[in-house]
Design brief:
Blueprint (H helix, E strand, L loop, with lengths): L1 H8 L23 H6 L14 H11 L1 H21 L5 E8 L7 E11 L6 E11 L14 E10 L8 H67 L6 H32 L32 H11 L1 H22 L4 E12 L16 E10 L5 H68 L5 H36 L12
Antiparallel strand pairs: 1-2, 2-3, 3-4, 4-5, 5-6
């Protein structure tokens, strides 16, 4: 019995009405309802002709504007990290000064560099300068040996800026921003897969509705002439022809409504099915699959395990976790600014060559070797900037904690709801298949009664429409199952289709 139900379920997208049977060959339908149903066990779609969900997803990932925007945010985050790394770039300064008028004629050339590092906030510096000529006594330090002076030194923070400073904070936050952008991309990708899958299955369902409605119309139209022949021979009353004409009009109206629904779902699907240039591409009716695929019910897992899996996978929580780290860096930086600034500076300089030219009467070969050690203390008095930044960072941390709790609760609720919907859809699927079997049997039985004169065409039409409605109900159940599956995978945070352009 189970095998029979599964086989019948494969054909739900097939037509739902039975061909009327009569003792005249040309009005004889193409077999019983169950036999006609089997005729629609179509082979798998030909590759390249049928539009698949994977094709829609890949198209959306490559060209959907929200995904392009998310990818650009990743690029912007990468640019931000590069800019933060620039805080540790070497800076070089150059000075050339000449005295053009005055009692003291001299020339000065100075080139220096500064190299900040992430090692305890240490900064290295050094350079070369050359000062020759005559200087007043208060400016004698500008004078160097004739070959110039080389200098070098280091500044080491001992308190403030030792564990963290603005450069290191910016770099840490820039790296976190890259992770945030990556998780934001995953959020967009996960939502895209869910919505695109729902739009695709709605389009497939609309296609099955058109096929079922058209098949019902074909049945009524094919038997019309046969009925007229039987009426002319006196085998049937004329009202049967009128009943069939009424049925044809009703079924034509169903076809028009089904075709409108197909156009509507195709337009909605075109938002995700795009050309390489990003233009929406309207799928054609010829692109429809012949039937829904056979559903595969996932292995049942414990609810607690499913929720834990979702909490570990969902990118929204990962994004909030990185936002928390970003706020913690800002808080640590603000606390750092409350500490006194105590910096140790060590430097040295060495002159080369005589201190005067050989043409100077005060010619001297005195070389100067200098070593310096200094302590700089910066004591903040008012702490309003630091305190305000700490308050802001602490408030952000509390806000993120609340957002994290809310997101976790929402994800747990989504897992519960989507799993419940999936289980209900699976049960509905089984019931709809049984309903379809019974509707087919009633259709065949009513046609048999009509053949022997125990029924009329009105009841046959009702059975045919009931059989068609059962087929539509089955297609609806399949649609609900696949959409519920998409929601369940979304709730679990499963990425359905890998993106080669996704930046980790």
């Amino acid at each position: 019995m189970t095998r029979r139900i599964l086989l019948i379920g494969l054909c739900w997208a097939c037509t739902a009405a039975a061909l009327a049977d009569s003792h005249h060959a040309k009005t004889r339908p193409q077999g019983k309802a169950s036999e006609r149903y089997k005729l629609h066990l179509a082979p798998p779609p030909v590759a390249g002709k049928t539009l698949t969900l994977d094709t829609v997803l890949q198209s959306a990932i490559e060209s959907f504007p929200a995904m392009i925007a998310a990818a650009r945010r990743q690029d912007a985050a990468a640019g931000g990290k590069l800019a933060a790394e620039g805080g540790f770039d070497t800076s070089v300064k150059l000075l050339q000064r000449s005295s053009v008028l005055g009692a003291y004629q001299n020339e000065n050339f100075d080139i220096g560099f500064e190299q900040p590092t992430a090692i305890w906030g240490t900064t290295f510096f050094g350079g070369y300068r050359r000062g020759v000529g005559k200087y007043p006594i208060y400016e004698e330090k500008s004078e160097t040996g004739y070959a110039g002076e080389v200098r070098a030194g280091v500044i080491i923070p001992l308190w403030r800026n030792r564990t963290i400073d603005r450069r290191r904070a910016n770099l840490a936050q820039a790296e976190i921003n890259q992770l945030i952008a990556s998780h934001d991309y995953d959020v967009q990708l996960l939502e895209l897969q869910r919505i695109a899958a729902q739009r695709y299955w709605d389009w497939v369902l609309a296609g099955r509705r058109v096929a079922i409605a058209q098949d019902l119309l074909n049945i009524a139209e094919q038997r019309d002439q046969g009925l007229r022949t039987r009426i002319a021979s006196g085998d049937l009353p004329p009202i049967e022809a009128t009943e069939n004409q009424r049925s044809i009009l009703e079924r034509r109206e169903r076809v028009v409504a089904a075709e409108r629904l197909l156009q509507q779902t195709a337009i909605q699907l075109s938002l995700y099915l795009r050309t390489p240039d990003g233009e929406p591409q309207l799928p054609a009716p010829e692109d429809l699959p012949d039937h829904f695929p056979e559903p595969e019910v996932p292995t049942r897992r414990e609810l607690t395990a499913a929720i834990d899996e979702a909490l570990n996978r969902r990118p929204e929580l990962k994004r909030l976790e990185q936002q928390r780290k970003h706020a913690e860096v800002e808080r640590d930086m603000a606390r750092n600014q409350r500490s006194p600034g105590v910096d140790l500076a060590l430097s040295g300089a060495q002159d080369f060559g005589p201190s005067r030219t050989v043409f100077d009467t005060n010619f001297s070969f005195v070389n100067r070797t200098e070593m310096y050690a200094a302590i700089t203390v910066d004591l903040p008095v008012q702490q309003r900037v630091a305190d305000g930044n700490i308050m802001t960072a602490e408030a952000n941390l509390q806000r993120i904690a609340a957002d994290y709790q809310l997101a976790s609760d929402r994800i747990a609720a989504e897992v519960k709801d989507s799993r419940s919907a999936l289980e209900a859809a699976a049960k509905r699927l089984g019931l709809a298949r049984q309903q379809l079997i019974m509707a087919r049997e009633l259709e065949d039985g009513e046609r048999t009664r009509f053949e022997v004169g125990d029924s009329n065409l009105m009841f046959v039409n009702q059975r045919e429409l009931a059989s068609g409605d059962a087929a539509i109900s089955g297609a609806d159940a399949l649609n609900a199952f696949f959409k519920s599956m998409a929601d369940f995978k979304y709730a679990l945070g499963e990425i359905l289709s890998p993106d080669p352009h996704h930046k980790q």
